[in-house]
Design goal:
This protein is of the alpha+beta class. It contains 1 helix and 15 strands, in the order αβββββββββββββββ.
Amino acid sequence: MNFFKEVTMKKLFVTLVVCLSSSLISGYAHAQQGQKLTTSEILGERREYYFDDNKVDELPVGFQSAFTGKGESERWIVKKIEHAPSADNVVVQTKLNDTDYRFPLLILDGVSYKDFMVFVKFRAVSGKTDQAGGLVFRYKDNNNYYVLRANALENNVRLYTVINGNRRQIAEKNTKVTSNEWHLLKVICKADKIQCFFNNTKVFEVSDDTFDSGSVGLWTKSDSYTFFDDMVMQEMK
């Protein structure tokens, strides 16, 4: 009898351990899920674009091309290169024209954000008139938006509003922008506060309420031949 009692007690103990373990694992999983839901509710939608699943020589999926200014129209494509930040593909605007007031745009299609963080890596490869790369944000249409841009020929970073196709400079920071090297531009928008970063260093912060929401995208100028990669957009609620 003692033997059978001992076996029964062992079975009961094992059953309790298994049940307790299952309960703890389930509780942990639910807690993790709850945490993710809470984080998602706070941060909102996140989009990441590395362009490595897109077809080469075509417009990247989910984007539309646009144009501000004068001169030849734009042509954005996915291009395979060596030493890209992630895998092999980048995005580049390939129609080059030395018209000074010429701004090809690549805009994320069908979205609008009010408060958000967006960043992109860029590499200004060549250009005689300009060697520039920029981030468009709170984009309304091809003539109304903000743009944060860096120029390797001028060694500066500037923030502009574009209103009815006319640029107005809001802020500027003189800093070294090397040609043919990867750099990072980042913008954080919260209500009318706009924080701007170059290579993860804040270059300026401004208050401006010209545009309160809109899409995000990429920007070049004139004959700039510029690679873009690793574009990340995080909505904030």
